[in-house]
Amino acid sequence: MISCKNLTKIYRNGEVETIALNNVSFEIAKDEFVSIIGPSGSGKSTLMHILGALDNPTSGEYFLDNREVSKLNDDELSELRKNKIGFVFQSFNLLPRTTVLRNVMLPLLYTKTTSQERLLRAKECLRYAGMEENKFQNLSNQLSGGQMQRVAIARALINNPSIILADEPTGNLDTKTSRIVMEALQELNKKGHTIILITHEIDVANYANRIIHVRDGKIEKDTRK
Question: Which CATH number is 2-224's, of 3.40.50.300, 3.30.360.10, 3.10.20.30, 3.40.50.360?
């Protein structure tokens, strides 16, 4: 599904160059659950932006479903992100004074779907993410951190993406709530979604079946369970 070949990313500020990724190569198969772990400044966030089609490498190739992502135009990239990748972020990125259902439906507002179709799909995704039905009409700012992350996961699923890209999804959660969220991601993986998790915590990374360790812009170790 994913093939990265010799990815290098260099940030330039005047005459100063910072090498964020240095000749990184790996593949991720369909239905894998992969953690990318590393300390701050290791290059994992840069790698996440490239895998999410939010940025291009300075050199190297990134193929997603046999398409070279860096050669796609802006419209093609937007379609790729909308149809192939669901994003889950540390900060949830929910609208605070908006209901759970409406938050999840938002990505469908500019698609050729009826309001009834959007409603049914949002409810389905919320149940799929393990959200309690009696919370569907709550405002997102009335929820706990774990509940907000489940809503964020449901929103990421709304377009039925093949890949869920989770960037530090437990960063704002306590240990118990983190476990609940990670178990939800494991369940999604068992149901056929490819999960790519960015984290700096080994306990969180261990929920995956494969861990890619990144340091100083390079892959230090790639282990499968």
Answer: 3.40.50.300
